[in-house]
Amino acid sequence: MDVSATGEPVVPREDTQIRIGIDLRAGTLALIHGGRAYEPYHASVTFVGVQQAPWTAQEVTFSTKGTDGKAKALTVDLLNDTYDGPRENIPTAIWKVVALTAASAGDLGITYTAPSSP
């Protein structure tokens, strides 16, 4: 394929939402939902930004397989009901996934700071 390109692409701030995904190594994270265990293999984090405020992680969706081998998506809302801070009782392991994804987001010019009390 013969391609050329010029310019400095950026994510426009008018786009107040961006989704970034990462693959997860098998066996490094287990999710328990409804008493069933799931092993996620992919995480997709939605970051939101309003005007010039810092980007915030809004939700993370995990692509998983259950012990029965069936695929399932599990979504975790990260913001509290008033959307002004992190939801309480989010496991530390999920915040670690968000932080890993945020590292990839930095490649797109998104800066993200984890909540002070996950």
SSE layout and pairing:
Blueprint: E1 17-23, E2 31-33, E3 36-48, E4 56-66, E5 71-77, H1 92-105
Please outline what is shown here.
This protein has one helix and five strands; from the N terminus they run βββββα.
How would you describe this structure to a colleague?
The chain starts with 16 loop residues before the first strand and ends in a 13-residue tail after the last helix. The chain is globular, with a radius of gyration of 16 Å. With 118 residues, the chain is mainly β. Strands 1, 2, 3, 4 and 5 form a 5-stranded antiparallel sheet that branches. The model has no long low-confidence stretch (mean pLDDT 82). Helices cover 12% and strands 35% of the residues. The protein is built from 1 helix and 5 strands; from the N terminus they run βββββα. The longest helix is centred in the last third of the chain and has 14 residues, at 92-105. It has one helix at 92-105; strands at residues 17-23, 31-33, 36-48, 56-66, 71-77. A hairpin with a 7-residue loop joins strand 3 (36-48) and strand 4 (56-66).
